Amino acid sequence: MSLAEISSANDAHVVAVAHNGKLESEVCANEISDSEASQHVDSDHGRLPYPELLQALTLEEKVALLSGSDFVRSTGIPRLDIPPLKIVDSINGVKGSDLHHGTPTAVFPSSTLYGSTWNNALMEELGACLAQQAKLKSAQVILGPTINIHRDPRGGRNFECFSEDPLLSGQLAAAIVRGIQSQGLAACPKHFACNESEFKRRSYDVAEDYNGRTVREIYLAAFQELLRGCEPAALMISYNKLNGVHTTESPFLKDMLRDEWKYNGCLVSDWFATKSTAASMNAGLDLEMPGPTVFRGQRLIDAVRDGLVEEKAVDESAARVLALVEAARSSVSGAPERSEIRPETNALALRIASEGIVLLKSDHYVLPLDMRRAPKIAVVGVPATEPVISGGGSASAPPQYIQRPLDCLREAHPVPSLIQYVRGVNTNRIVPTVPLAQTMSQTGEPGFDIAYYNSGCDEPAYTERQAVPVVAMVRDLKPGLEETGFRYEISTTITPASTGVHTLAARVTGAFLLFVDNELVGSLSEQAEVSMEDFLFEPARLEHRISVPMVAGKSYHVRLVTNARIPKENDYEPTPHGAVLCYEEYVNERASIAEAVQAASSADVSIIFAGRNHEYESEGFDLVSNSLPDAQVKLIKAVAAVSHRTVLVLNCGNPINVSPFVDDVDAVLNAHFPGQEGGQAVTDILTGKTNPSGRLATTWPKQFDQEHVPSFDHFPARLTDDGYKIQYAEGVQVGYRHPGVERTAQWQFGFGLSYTTFEYSELVISEVAHASITVSIGVKNTGIYPGHEVVQAFVVPPKANVWRPARELKGYAKVWLLPGEARRVSIELQKKDAFSYWDEAIKQWKVEAGTYRLVAGPLSEAWTVEKEVTWSGR
Ligand code: BGC
User: Fold this and answer.
1) Ligand 1, atom 8: nearest CA belongs to which residue?
2) Which string of DSSP letters, residue by residue, matches 219-262?
């Protein structure tokens, strides 16, 4: 990458600069309005686009445009050749119509890994590639990126978000949006705003003022940074409330997004986040998703006729939906969804994974492994053979293929047989579905027989045979089923591989009976409240386990009978019906650990694969704890105790509590959720083919308590007399902005090791203009490997009346250097964004007079370079 490329890669801002070179006195320390520096000043703001088209539409047609037609489509108006748009998840893998499973697709890493790449140019390439993937699914709008903030390390969807830092989140996301939209598709970043927790996400109230400092400087700042760097065709409005009002009805949509930030794109509700007709229309929410509509359609027509909503509001929203259609219409196609494995896509997925995996610890020269010496390696852990590629929920997508790290390692080894694999302990949170290979259906083939019965009938209305023991019906029931009162049965014959007290489990939405050889072994007369959320995202809540003694080689006929749920009255979401039959054989934890210990003790190096998977980190719920399950901790400690050298590879979205074992191991690699090329990326780093260049986008605390995690006691929402509430009580002290971070962090924001070393030289302020300044920093690769360095530029404010974080990230650049090579890296800082804080009294950004320090280099290192800048008052 050339210098020019580097600076443009980080130059999300297009600013007209006056080159008068004077720092003091040229800009006064005072408040700066947002519109002053906004690039989105639209002289046409307030004038409706598409006036002719709008005039041609009837009120009914305009209203029709304002809600979806089904789960993934907007509504088209064929009479006027306005097509429906197909709107799909997401930026780590573009799925098709089935938002929660879908057609296989190229699965890229999760966003926390993207955050750790610190590479805007790479993200822009990713965006363009995602658009190509969306075209294979005949989709026009991609739901993402998600730029909520890593506020607390238990946030269930943090893996889907980039960072604890708003600037890094906003810039990387903007690059992805630019990439997507450069291909004639539309992006819909989300979730606006303050959606940092999953527990009670549909209803909790973030009890913070949107004109307050906390929200402006951290949570809204990510979106503001995004809008500086791109013009997303749409934005998704979140489920939660902010300051007592649902965001889909909040005045901040108009007052802040439209008037102050001049954002003109289409505002789309998160799925089922629209809660009203008039209130959401009058607040400026343009599109209710999904369809068919609940709150618009005839209800909205009536509201217009009754004077509750002005037709002008309908026109404005319809114009914005039309603009969205226009932005993406060139890619509208009715082609069937398909998956295409393309080498260039895989290469990009590999490059991203390689740039975002973070080497957290590397002692005793254990890494990189020198494969030429044919080391004897013990590979331990389930994720080495059942790779974790993504977190759970709407962001997870069905991969085209999965690489097993064990296979990749063997391929990189001159004598593959010198790699011994031991599975170790179980890493799953829920009981897995019955493995097909151990089953037999009525036909004598492996499989499951499924039968659906109407109430009181002994003859099934419908039968089918499946390879998976899963029934899931939301809106569409199986042919012949009546709306209510039906039941369905999943049956098969299971042959255990071992003798023991094994576990059968039913994950059901209704009352159930479980039979083994016609004997009732488990039942439930009434399933507790089950929401769409639980059904889609939190299988653990629906799980019932039953222990059954079983003998190896014997056949057991297993039948799970589940009743239809009784629909809730006045529920505008469809009633979910589902059942999953699960089975797991007893694993003797001690014996498994002993086996791993034996393999490790005779190896030159042990590589342990551990961490969390999508059952722990997912949309729909938050983590209960940051500790690894006991069994994994025991395995790591036992293996490390006997290994000559130990390398630990962790899969996770959120930080893990490594304190129980970090001193026992020689190296730690944070592989995040690395996507379908993850196995290769991890192998390339372990073997030195790739020099690691990922840097943490979020601080890893030493412990997980109030002392180490500022949000700890205020997460998740608490039930109050006024419903579920969250207070962002830690204010702006999120992650590295916390004053005690040096003491409380295991690894700070920006930290990550390389196989080479870098030296920084002089920071020069090369250009000063009215709105921006450019700094340049010399960086040299002083080691023996080529590699990327991430240059991080922080601003340290002067002592002032208001408390401010000790330093804040205001720019960054990633540079590739050969051994011995030196370059100067340029970073442009926007004055208003780099030096100001949000002054609540005047509801404006304010730059205080005084001397600021510009510091370049990772937070945790002493070898930073710096320069002072003085801004004076008038
Ligand atoms: C999620 C969104 C997602 C949508 C569509 C919702 O549950 O919050 O992020 O885009 O579903 O799948």
Assistant:
1) 270
2) IHHHHHHHHHH---SEEEE-SSEETTEEGGG-THIIIIIIIIT-
Q: Give the tens place of pLDDT for each residue, 690-702.
A: 999 999 999 999 9
Quickly count helices (H) and strands (E) in the chain.
Answer: 21, 39
Catalytic residue among 270, 315, 449, 534: 270
From residue 836, alpha-carbon distances to 393, 802, 804, 847 in Å are 37, 11, 10, 4
The whole-angstrom separation of Cα 466 and Cα 486 is: 20
How far, in Å, from the CA of 132 to the mean position of ligand 1? 21
Indicate the helix (H) or strand (E) that contains 789. strand 787-796
CA distance 545 to 541: 11
pLDDT band, very low/low/confident/very high, at 769 (cuts 50, 70, 90)? confident
Tell me how far the alpha carbon of residue 102 lies from the centroid of ligand 1, in angstroms. Answer: 14
pLDDT at 48: 60
**Statement: the pTM of the whole predicted model exceeds 0.90:** yes
| CATH, range 1-333+353-426+587-754 | 3.20.20.300
pLDDT computed for residue 51 by the predictor: 81
Q: 3-state SS string over 427-448?
A: CCCCCCECCHHHEECCCCCCCE
pLDDT tens digits for range 662-679: 999 999 999 999 999 999
CB of 270 within 6 A of ligand 1: the answer is: yes
- Residues 433, 469 contacting (CB under 8 angstroms): yes
Which residue's CA is the closest to the ligand 1 atom numbered 2? 270
What is the per-residue pLDDT across 289-325, written as a single tens digit (0 to 9) for each? 999 999 999 999 999 999 999 999 999 999 999 999 9
Q: Which atom, in ligand 1's list, is nearest to the CA of 238?
A: 8
Ligand 1 atom showing the smallest separation from residue 191 Cα: 9
CB under 8 Å to 252, separation ≥6 — which residues?
193, 210, 242
Cβ contacts of 46 within 8 Å, gap of 6 or more: none
CA distances from 93 to 137, 198, 333, 604, 687 (A): 11, 21, 20, 38, 27
Exposed/middle/buried for 258, CB within 10 Å: 0-12, 13-18, 19+? middle
Residue 70 CB coordination number (10 Å): 15
Q: How many residues does the structure list for the chain?
A: 874
Contacts of 383 (CB under 8 A, 6+ apart): 405, 427, 609, 610, 611, 613, 649, 651
Pick the atom of ligand 1 nearest to 533's CA.
Answer: 7
Distance 288 CA to ligand 1 centre (A): 13
What is the domain partition of the chain in residue ranges? 1-333+353-426+587-754, 436-584, 758-871
Residue 296, C-beta contacts closer than 8 angstroms, at least 6 positions apart: 63, 66, 67, 274, 277, 281, 288
In angstroms, the CA 339 to CA 469 distance is: 25
Is 98 an annotated catalytic residue? no
- Token readout for 170 is 């906003």
Task: Report the C-alpha gap between 200 and 824 in whole angstroms.
Answer: 49
Cis peptide bond prior to 292, omega within 30° of 0:
yes
Taking the centre of ligand 1 as the mean of its atom positions, its distance from the CA of residue 246, in whole angstroms, is 17
Query: Is CATH 3.40.50.300 the classification given to domain 436-584?
Result: no
Q: Which fold has domain 758-871?
A: Immunoglobulin-like (2.60.40)
Confidence at residue 360, expressed as pLDDT on a 0 to 100 scale: 98
Q: Which of 271, 288, 535 to mutate to test the pocket of ligand 1 (most atoms within 8 A of CB)?
A: 271
The continuous run of DSSP H or E covering 765 comes out as: strand 758-768
The two structure tokens encoding residue 139: 């989709």
In the block, tokens 């999120």 appear at 734
Dist CA 298 CA 114 (whole Å)? 43
* Protein residue closest via CA to atom 3 of ligand 1: 394
